[in-house]
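Incident log, structure service

09:12 report received: a user says their structure output differs between two submissions of the same chain.
09:20 pulled the input from the user's history:
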Amino acid sequence: MSETLNRTQIVARTELKETSKRQQVGILGGNFNPVHHAHLIVADQVYHQLGLDKIYLMPTYEPPHIDHKTTISSELRLDMLELALASDDYLEIETLEINRAGKSYTYETMKTLTELNPDVDYYFIIGGDMVEYLPKWYEIEKLMSLVQLVGVRRPNYPITSEYPLIWVDVPLMDISSSLIRAKVAKGDSVNYLLPRDVINYIEMKGLYRDG
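09:34 re-ran on a clean worker, output below:
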């Protein structure tokens, strides 16, 4: 059921955009604690490869995992996102989950967004390592009726699924927010792992120093 992005798909989507008033918008969710270059590269590559109108980075208020994940305040994470996206007009921030507060389930979020924006087609971006967990997602069948899933290929993970996905290739970057937090806590350099303005903000606020 999965599909691999190719030139024919790109041309078809471009022609559809030219004849339709509907916007094609990508959503990249995450904790962004902090946002880093791997996040930005995924967003940029999906935007260009699929020919979308916008990509929204959507920070969660509280991840819906059983094991609680400690995070910093949403205000601090939003500040860093704004700094990271300041120079790109096609990358923006969606604050719905932050504003709603509480646990965030993708289906509930996308249901609200599609109701608020009926003229938008949404492309929800997930890492290839998450595809095998889709059957366990809350209201996954209903979610599939609302969005097109976009899978980012990951080494050693299959590109097959019972759900229809568009697969994209993105340059591999072994960067994670947890790696950055650990490096900051130890006083190690994080240069070039995330935007300079975000690094400066982390230093100014003294974030992640307590490990």
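09:41 both user submissions now match this output. Likely a transient worker issue. Closing.
09:42 reviewer note: Residues 3-205 form a domain with the Rossmann fold fold (CATH 3.40.50.620). The chain has eight helices and seven strands.
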